[in-house]
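Researcher: Let's do a round of design. I'm pasting the structure tokens now; please hold your answer until I've finished.
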């Protein structure tokens, strides 16, 4: 778990820098999505229940394919609020421990950056295509 935790904490620091460059402050409300992976449906469902029991309102668990034949489960949990790097790091520590206790792994987190010029978050800029999740993951979270 310590490798997963240390990796997540380091990625959070880089992501926080990106968020700051996007104009996010400690008073900006954000929906932060935490992404988990489980190798069994039972583990994914147990983690989803534990997240709901801990007060996370939006939790979804579903199957995924990691390779052509391997099947896994993802759990996504969204927390709304204002964030600081310290709060993000603390929540990451809590979620890493919770995931490990259910034989799951916290894979990371991200957030949609607030819309600019009154645009809805996630709306394509100037009517163009939206950024793919793969592109956004490389830049430290989902943002435009």
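Researcher: That's everything. Go ahead.
Model: Designed sequence:
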């Amino acid at each position: 778990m310590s490798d997963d935790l240390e990796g997540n904490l380091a990625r959070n620091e880089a992501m926080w820098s990106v968020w700051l460059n996007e104009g996010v402050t400690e008073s900006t409300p954000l929906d932060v999505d935490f992404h988990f992976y489980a190798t069994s449906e039972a583990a994914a469902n147990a983690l989803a229940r534990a997240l709901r029991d801990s007060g996370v309102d939006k939790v979804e668990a579903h199957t995924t394919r990691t390779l052509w034949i391997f099947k896994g489960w993802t759990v996504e949990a969204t927390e709304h609020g204002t964030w600081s790097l310290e709060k993000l790091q603390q929540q990451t520590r809590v979620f890493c421990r919770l995931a490990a206790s259910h034989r799951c792994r916290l894979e990371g987190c991200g957030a949609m950056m607030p819309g600019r010029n009154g645009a809805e978050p996630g709306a394509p800029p100037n009517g163009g295509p939206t950024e793919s999740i793969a592109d956004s993951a490389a830049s430290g979270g989902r943002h435009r």
